[in-house]
Amino acid sequence: MRTAQGIRKSLLAALAAASLCACAKNDQAVIFSTARTHGKIWPRRAEGPASPQTGGFAVFKNIYAKEQLPKLAVDSGGWIATAPEAFLTRGKSTIACLNAVPYSLAAAAMEDLLLPPAELQKLAGLARFPILASNLYLKSNKKPEAFASYQILEAGRHKIGFFSVMIPDPAKPNKAKNLANYRIEKETYDAERAIKALKAGGAKIIVMLLNVNPKTAAKPEFFRELLAKLPRVDVAITDEPSVGKPFKAGRAWVVRAGLEMEEAARITLDIEPVTGRLSDLAWKALPLSVEEHGQAQDMMKLVESYRAAASAHFSKRIGFLNDSVPFMENGYSPSAEFAADCIRTWAKANAAIVPVSEPAAGFSSGTVTIGDLYGAFPLDSSVVFVKIRGDDLEGAVAGMQPSEISVSGLKLFLKDGALEHLETDAGAVVPGKVYHLAVPDSLVNGREHAVLSNAMEFANSKRYLREIVGWCFSRKKILSRPAGGRVVRSGQ
Q1: In 389-461, which ranges are continuous DSSP H helix?
Q2: Partner residues linked to 411 by β-bridges
Q3: What is the pLDDT of residues 89-139, one digit of tens each?
Q4: Cα separation, 135 vs 342, whole angstroms
Q5: How far is CA 426 from CA 379, 389, 439, in A?
Q6: β-strands 27-35, 263-271 pairing
């Protein structure tokens, strides 16, 4: 027969075992992550009217609201790039949707630096959450006032520290980059300072939002080498599209955010309850399916207000075309030639050169709308004025692939696919004469182009090529397809 003391000992042992089991079970928290939203605030259909609708903040809000674990929502920027509503609101529509979910934190991306500092800071001021930009500086070497270098958030009872870094070129890591209005400091300098401050503030888990220049690509080796140079980072959330499944880089997990509001990444953190440290991680890309998750009605009202404004704006008529202006035809780009004619006229230049990579589409005959203009010229390329001597102009054009450029005011004579000689509308190019060119800044920013290195003078007009094409439409009630015959091959 068991004594009272024996029963008491058994109960104490059982309670100790239960307590031990409870301690052994890890806590969990969830980080939802999005990036490169590009202003895509409402769902879209993949193919045709019968295909399912996917994407948008109204779907994500439903998913976020239903999450039962302690949760955070973070966004890694890229707010103003390609969607019509983003062009119209300059990122305000995206920030309004982030506020309405609500998001816990965001980070600016390199695409957002297309906005001048005053406008970007005003946009950041609309956010009801912190916006990070740890290694971003103004040209004065001061930090932008509306941005933070780091932030500690709480998920349940756990403190999670965040910082962000922009990577201008993964092929040239840890180098500062000077832009027109900003300076991006080398990533390790500000990362180390942020990590130290987060640890001092009591953060037990350190998360880096890692923004890669969308014009580049980062391989796994880049992440491994970067994280090897830094103090402890637990999770690196990147907007690099090539990152598929999560992988370890030293002690850190590298995971991808959900991109372009087509999906959201759900990152489940396994957290040791006593130490608050990360034990394990699970990642899943959640497609934002309208059919599966529905749409939050309050968010739909906000989104529809922006949709109506965008529809009204982009349906406005800007001109009329007698003939269609195709994107490509017989190896040439009539739409790029059309743009070259426009910027040459606007700049009162002798000639213009436009890469065929500038247009994304052509124009149909008939009425042309603002939406057609943005669809044909989606890039935010500015027009640059260039002064160049005739011999340098011919040398610069000879260094380009004829199939990759369109010209106005020039005629290219090719032999066996290479430039044999160049003429202007006034005749042969005079070697010592100074010519005035108009070109997009995409033609002078890369090392592969020789225009800038050969120029005597150049100046950025700060006016978008797309804007100048719109000016062409506004000048005349009816426009026609540009005349061809700008490239003459031997035997023609």
Answers
A1: 390-398, 451-454
A2: 423
A3: 889 999 999 999 999 999 999 999 988 899 999 999 999 999 999 999 999
A4: 39
A5: 32, 15, 20
A6: antiparallel
pLDDT at 21: 45
Question: Which residue's structure tokens are 């009591």?
Answer: 202
User: Does the pLDDT at position 155 exceed 90?
Assistant: yes
Closest CA to 175 of 226, 116, 221, 101: 226
Strands 405-408 and 235-238: unpaired
**Cα within 13 Å of Cα(118), Cβ side:** 0
Instruction: State how far the Cα of 105 lies from the Cα of 269, in Å rounded to an integer.
Output: 17
Q: Rounded to whole angstroms, how far apart are CA atoms 269 and 436?
A: 59
Contacts of 207 (CB under 8 A, 6+ apart): 31, 160, 161, 162, 163, 233, 234, 235, 236, 237
**Residue 401 pLDDT level (bands cut at 50, 70, 90):** confident
Task: Report how far residue 402's alpha carbon sits from residue 419's, in angstroms, rounded to the nearest whole number.
Answer: 8
The neighbouring-strand residues paired with 159 are 154
Tell me the pTM.
0.77
**Which whole number is the average pLDDT over 152-174?**
96
- The average pLDDT across 346-352 equals 95
Q: How far apart are CA 30 and CA 35, in angstroms?
A: 17
Contact 68, 109 (CB under 8 A): no
String of DSSP letters for 34-60: EE--TT--S-EESSTTTSPEE--HHHH
- Write down all domains in the chain, each with its CATH number in brackets: 25-311 (3.60.21.10), 316-489 (3.90.780.10)
pLDDT band at 52 (very low <50, low <70, confident <90, very high): confident
Please list, in sequence order, all residues whose beta carbon lies within 8 angstroms of the beta carbon of residue 173, skipping any fewer than 6 positions away.
Answer: 167, 187, 222, 225, 226
Report how far Cα 433 is from the mean position of its chain's Cα atoms: 41
Please state the separation of Cα 206 from the chain's center in Å: 24
Instruction: Record the tokens describing residue 316, joined without a space.
Output: 């406005």
pLDDT at residue 445, as a whole number: 62
SS3 462: strand
Question: 452 pLDDT band (50/70/90 cuts)?
Answer: low
Buried b (16+ CB within 10 A) or exposed e, 139-161: eeeebbebbbbbbebebeebbbb
Residue 34 phi, psi dihedral angles, 5° rounding: -130, 165
The span from the first CA to the last CA of the chain, in angstroms, equals 114
Measuring CA to CA, which residue among 283, 284, 280, 282 is closest to residue 25? Answer: 280
Tokens coding 474: 């506004």
The answer to whether 404 touches 356, Cβ cutoff 8 Å, is yes
CB of 30 closer than 8 Å to CB of 265: no
